Structures are given as structure tokens and as C-alpha cells.
Amino acid sequence: MRIMIVGAGIGGTILANRLARLLAPELQRGEVDVVVLSASPRHLYQPGLLHLALGQTTVDALYRDQRTLLDPRIALLIDEVVAFAPDSKQVRGASGNAYSYDWLVIATGSRVTPEEVPGLAENAHGFYTEAAALRLAQALQAFDGGRVVVTTGVPHKCPMAPLELTFLLQDLFVRRGIAPRVDLLYTYPIGRLHSIEAVAEWARIEFARRGVRSATYFNIASVDGATRTVHSEEGLSVDYDLLIAIPPHRGAEAIERSGLGPRGWVPTHRRLLSMQGRDDVFVLGDTTNLPVSKAGSTARFQAEVIAANLASRVRGGGDTHGYDGKVLCFIETSRDRATYAAFNYAEPPRPHAPSRAMHMAKTFYHRLYWSSLRGFP
Length: 377
Ligand SMILES: Cc1cc2nc3c(=O)[nH]c(=O)nc-3n(C[C@H](O)[C@H](O)[C@H](O)COP(=O)(O)OP(=O)(O)OC[C@H]3O[C@@H](n4cnc5c(N)ncnc54)[C@H](O)[C@@H]3O)c2cc1C
Prior knowledge:
The chain is α/β, with parallel strands linked by helices. It has twelve helices and 21 strands. The strands form seven sheets. The protein has a five-stranded parallel β-sheet with strand order 5-2-1-9-19, with helices on one face. Strands 13-12-11-17 form a four-stranded parallel β-sheet, covered by helices on one side. The protein has a three-stranded antiparallel β-sheet with strand order 6-7-8. Strand 14 (220-224) and strand 15 (229-232) form a beta hairpin. It binds flavin-adenine dinucleotide (FAD).
């Protein structure tokens, strides 16, 4: 029996290592094998991209060799999946190889698609890829005042990133002594500052306290680099000196190409995390179409559910666990303060006032990233 996990990001890696422990006897006896198939031999610590853009870390600190993060009992193959064929229980790689499985887990994450908005890729800075974060770091170093516009496309991963970026920019400008010369404007696509109401209300008070301006109902329509103007679908036009965008996202191209889900989001059972209409395919992390935040913590909690249910199935049992929509996100509000939001399908978050203690908790949590992929703690 083969369990194939496509994608070795946070979700795929945690799931594989958990399966290695849960299925130790079956792996030992050769009754099951767990194969991770991933496009990249390197693992990127994505939250670090924000700190790379702010000049607080280096590129080398963000990467590890994927093989070193996986239990030795897990096979790792490097190949980009170009097609999923669930009816024949196969996936096809860019190498031309076809891979068969008994159970498949799709954990291919999400990708930014700035090209969907005219002018965005050419004129906006960002921090969702290594190259964009490095360019933004340079631009911020050279920046000496003017209007900074932070704008967000939907859906996007890391629900707190637009707020965190805005808070950390404001903190940076204060520390550099240029805050009086900076007009910081945060825009958001819906009628409040965040998709989660409690977070939006908390952010409204924080913005007022810090003098950060905002514009809601702002869906980016286009960017004109010649006049340095960003236009919204709602008809608002804003001039900028520095534009920083979180572009809209889509799921993996192979998912769209294979017709598994519009825009690459796979229709997913909200509790069992199986692909709708298929009992042998699970969906993990960013690539689900569930109404939960696309975040590393989401992928982590979902991996625990899928691992338990797959282990049970290998032994001939039924599904024993269900995902309750749990998400935990820290929110950095300055270089030395943070808060957090914890929520699930039923319970909204209640963010508290930022504190140094929470900043230390976040720093500690992030330092543990690599060992937590292996299952510790
Ligand atoms: C700047 C930034 C800051 C963030 N901060 C936080 C934070 O503070 N807290 C938090 O919880 N989350 C944060 N996130 C979000 C978090 O990183 C993602 O939500 C999380 O990584 C999703 O996990 P995943 O396993 O679904 O996908 P990913 O971790 O993105 O992994 C996808 C994997 O699939 C592979 N892959 C993709 N396509 C294919 C293919 N066709 N064939 C084979 N392999 C493929 C990739 O190589 C990769 O290994 C942040 C993200 C960014 C960009």
C-alpha cells in the first residue's frame, strides 16, 4: 500500500513525519510505504520572508535541505506534478514519470498571481517570494519619506500578514526618525480592516492609536507606474511613492489543469479533509477551498487529523478524527510586541493587547519551526 503526499511544505512534511511514527510497525514490515513528491529539494521558512523584507534576517537562514527534515523511513522524490489523474490513482511529474498510489494527499500550497492585476507585477513591491522580499528590502533602505500604500488581493495566505507588515513598517519608520514624513495608508478589500470581525475591530483601535490611515472596500483593479497611482475596482485612485502589495493567490497549476478545482482550490470536506466525491484523496493546507485561514498552523492541525485517519485506514479501520477549523496566528505589532488570534469554525478569536511576553512566545515558536516539522515539540 502506498500513501503519496504531493508537496513538502509545512503540511506535507508534518504529515509525513507523523505517519512515520504512527505506522512504524507497518513501515518496518514493508506493508506500507509513504512517499513525498515535491517540486523543490529545499524547504522555505515562509514567515521569515517578512523579516527578510525588513532587513532582519538573511536568505540562508530561511532554507533547509528537505531531506534532512523528513524521517529516514519516508521516501522523498523531487518532481513537479503536472497532472493529477484520480480515476487511475496516478499523478504525473514534469520528468514524464507517472506515480501510482493507494491514498493521495494534495499539499501543494498556494502561489501568488500578481499578473492577474494589470500593472501590479511591474510596479508593486511585495514579500511573498524571496526575490520580492529582497527587492523590497532595498527599496525600504532607500526610502526617506512619502506615501506608502499597503494593498491586499484575495484570497491570500497568512491572514495577518497585511496588518503585521503595516505595524512593522510604522515601527521601522518611527525608529528611523522618518515617521513624520511618511503617510502610511492600509487598504483592504472588504468594509473593515480584516476578514475576521474581532481582528478588524482590534486593528481599528491600534491604527487610530498609531495614526495609520486606512481605506476599505479597496479591491486592486490596476496600477499605473507612470503616474504612480493604484486604482480600485470601486473607483478610488490613490497616489503612492512606495506600493507594497499582497497579490491574489491561486492553488497549484496542476490542480487547475487537471480540473480538480477552480483557481486551484480543491473542494474539500470540512471535517474529514477528503476531496469532495473521493474517498482516497485528502487535501491539506492552503490548497483546500475551506473557509479557514491559509496559514501554517492550519496545515499543522489538519495534518494531525489526516495522519490519524490514514493510519486507521491502513489498519482497516474508519476515520477517527475530524478537523474543527482550528487556526492559531501570532500578530507582530512592533519589533518587541505581539499578540495572537486563536479560533475555529465555531469560536471567533479575541485578540488581546500586544505584549512583550507574546512577542517572546512568537520568537520562541518560530525558532522551533524546524524541529516542529519533525514533530518536536
Ligand atoms: C510572508 C509570509 C508570512 C507568513 N507568515 C505566517 C505565520 O506567521 N504563521 C502562519 O501560520 N503562516 C504564515 N504564512 C503562511 C504559511 O507559510 C502557509 O500558509 C503554509 O506554508 C501553507 O502550508 P502548505 O503545506 O499548504 O503549503 P506550502 O508550505 O506552501 O508547501 C507547498 C509545497 O508544495 C510543493 N509544490 C507546489 N506545487 C507542486 C507541484 N506541482 N508538484 C510537487 N510539489 C509542489 C512546494 O514546493 C512546497 O514544498 C506566511 C506566508 C508568507 C508568504
